[in-house]
């Protein structure tokens, strides 16, 4: 829960699906949203979904933006990426070219956001297509290690690891938000402590100055006049 203006609101995590066309981004999203497998390929321009979920016992919302993988939409992806908090980068295990192209998507995300620590997950989809596999687990895993991110293989058809990747990404986004919030709190506390210390120092200086003035003036003034410093 996030408190705003005294009201408790559900935390909302904004995830973006990226990857080449026909790798199964939409199929993964629809399987997660509705528990359905859509086999027909219909090129996506950009579809947005929202779902209320329970993550580790905590209710929250997830926004999923399913982006176009085709090259002709490359120019508009920058705007989509700016709104994202976590990225699921998908390729097809049956298409080596789509695996190679994940580097381009990652580079574009890092360029747009300017943040190498952006939550990023590499996903090899269509794990059910064993006989037509073109990318080995070891090859994809090595790429993920080079990028310092996790790698998971999924199947939108059988639902293998579908919930896993979305839940894992939401946890990464949630942890990043908590860390940022804690840092802001620590910075605010440090600033407040500094302000109190400064005020106390000023008060001490004024009090000391006042005593000096009182002592200096008391010698030349009549008895009965007192300067009281509170």
From TrEMBL:
Indicate where this protein resides in the cell. Cell membrane; Endomembrane system
Primary location: membrane
Look up keyword Cell membrane and say if it applies.
yes
Query: What keywords appear on the UniProt entry?
Result: Cell membrane, GTP-binding, Hydrolase, Lipoprotein, Membrane, Methylation, Nucleotide-binding, Prenylation
State the GO CC annotations: endomembrane system; plasma membrane
**PROSITE patterns of this UniProt entry?**
RAB, RAS, RHO
Family matches, as Gene3D superfamilies: P-loop containing nucleotide triphosphate hydrolases
Give the bilayer topology: Lipid-anchor
Q: Give positions of region: Disordered.
A: 176-230
Membrane keyword on record = yes
Q: Would you kindly state one Gene Ontology biological process term found in this protein's UniProt entry? A: signal transduction
Example of a GO MF term? GTP binding
Could you say which EC number(s) this protein's record lists? 3.6.5.2
Q: What is this protein called?
A: small monomeric GTPase
- Source species: Thamnocephalis sphaerospora
Lineage of this protein's species?
Eukaryota, Fungi, Fungi incertae sedis, Zoopagomycota, Zoopagomycotina
């Amino acid at each position: 829960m996030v408190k705003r203006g005294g009201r408790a609101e559900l935390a909302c995590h904004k995830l973006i699906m990226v990857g080449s066309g026909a790798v199964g981004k939409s199929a993964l999203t629809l399987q997660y949203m509705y528990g359905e497998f859509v086999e027909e390929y219909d090129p996506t321009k950009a579809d947005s979904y929202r779902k209320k979920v329970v993550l580790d016992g905590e209710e929250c919302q997830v926004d999923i933006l399913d982006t176009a993988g085709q090259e002709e939409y490359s120019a508009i992806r920058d705007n989509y990426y700016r709104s994202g908090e976590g990225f699921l980068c998908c390729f097809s295990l049956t298409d080596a070219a789509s695996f190679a192209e994940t580097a381009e998507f990652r580079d574009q995300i890092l360029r747009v956001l300017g943040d190498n620590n952006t939550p990023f997950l590499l996903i090899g989809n269509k794990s059910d297509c064993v006989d037509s596999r073109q990318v080995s687990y070891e090859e994809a895993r090595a790429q993920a290690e080079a990028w310092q991110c996790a790698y998971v293989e999924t199947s939108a058809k059988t639902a293998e690891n579908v919930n896993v990747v979305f839940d894992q990404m939401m946890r990464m986004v949630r942890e990043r938000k908590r860390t940022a919030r804690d840092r802001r709190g620590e910075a605010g506390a440090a600033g407040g402590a500094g302000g109190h210390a400064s005020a106390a120092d000023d008060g001490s200086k004024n009090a000391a100055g006042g005593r000096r003035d009182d002592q200096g003036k008391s010698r030349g003034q009549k008895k009965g006049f007192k300067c009281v410093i509170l």
